[in-house]
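[Q] Does anyone have a clean structure-token version of this?
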Amino acid sequence: MTPATGTGGLAVEVTVHRGTFTLEASVTAAPGEVVAVLGPNGAGKSTLLGAVAGLVPVSGGRISLGENVLDDAASGRFVEAAERRVGVVFQDYRLFPHLGVLDNVAFGPRVRGRGRAAAREAARAWLDRLGLAELAGRRPDRLSGGQAQRVALARALAGDPDVLLLDEPLSALDARTRLDVQSELKDHLADFPGPCLVVTHDPLEALVLADRLVVLEHGRVVQEGPPAEVARRPATEYVARLVGLNLYAGRVDGGTVALADGGSLVVPDHDERGEVLVALRPSAVTVSTRPPQASSARNTWPATVAGLTLLTDRVRLDLEGAPSVLVDVTPAAVAELDLGPGRQVWLSAKAVDLEVYAREHPEPGGADRQ
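[A] Here you go.
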């Protein structure tokens, strides 16, 4: 069996070919660090986890965990999945239906070579730790979604892994249970000494659980960094949509950005020049039915209401103009302004509410918009 690597960091730099899809990604996770991997369907998130787990062969590159090389295409080294000290929590949990909770959790230690009694002893310790002791004799079909998720996590941890991989760990739960389990999961991950990769499509889940975000699109890493930084300065349209921002590409010259899709925006003048992205919060735009008169907003432009969507306590307006924009208003404002498809309106936004930053990886196809 592969020797334990302690709490070494995870380093992944791989190329993976799967049919017509290619993943080319470089991802690292330090000991004790939780890295959330986000991306649209088909971006390569599960392929990345599969490669680290040894379930998907790499075509090029290298995967290492501490000093232990798990995969190296150049040398031909490949550690089988069963020999890797990797704990995995699958999206559907994959608990063994014919085994009770205790023996499901004991499966990890058994795979690591422990005898039946020792494996069960380790399993009981994890069941106690995760508050599952009273469920030891139950079969998976008698567990709630939250209980099954906790059991799957206990099974992954009981194998004493050096790295933890979670593939959409909360997606099978209903909204109420997800909030409860999310808090518990964050606490458990904080106690895990090794690196952890969490694949998720839920931006709130990523922001709550992770120390760092890695965003995949079309098999490539398009952005990474602390959650607050990614949320404040999205690099692509997909990321902007995740965090609820409008995003525009353009060229700045002092205090004015000429937008790639038409129109311009006045921004704080930091004497910048060149290609930039501009992020704008939907709540930072004011809507009126006539041109603003006296206003501190330096950006005003006409637009047409293309659609309205109710989002709990607010209404999101889809407005076509130069630039087009999504704006959040109250239901009362919709009624007072008589807003509906086809309605002509005026928009205004303060220069200080625009976040402007360099565009490091320009995407083909013009401006990025939420």
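[Q] Thanks! Anything notable?
[A] The chain has two domains: 10-232, 244-358.
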